[in-house]
Amino acid sequence: MSTSRTQTLRRQRQHQPNMRFMDRLVVYFILFCSVDLRLIRKANAALPPDEITAIEALRDKFNLSNWTAGDPCSNVKWIKCSGAKTNVELLLLTNSNLTGTIPSEFKNLKSIITMYVNNP
């Protein structure tokens, strides 16, 4: 084998570890971005329309505070939602002097865990 051919093979072998490093770096970057995109998608999740209808009915029936724009999970103190903000899980209606019946749309709150309605 000629000397130049041997030198070429040595150079190629020296570059292989760098290529493996670059391949790994690309894979890690893709994994990092895919995880990040999933988090962004969850952060922008919205309540289903039937849950919006339910909390609007509660708001109108009991004269509760309104959200001006955007996500009611972030803008109203009496509504607490799941971590992904895709379902209402808690209603804080203490000291609201509630009277009357609960609107039928309340049944649309499929993930409700707790509802505080006491008046101390």
TrEMBL record:
Gene3D superfamilies xref list: Ribonuclease Inhibitor
SUPFAM superfamilies in UniProt: L domain-like
InterPro entries: LRR_dom_sf
Transmembrane segments: 21-40
Entry superkingdom: Eukaryota
Keyword field: Membrane, Transmembrane, Transmembrane helix
Listed name of the protein: Leucine-rich repeat-containing N-terminal plant-type domain-containing protein
Organism: Marchantia polymorpha
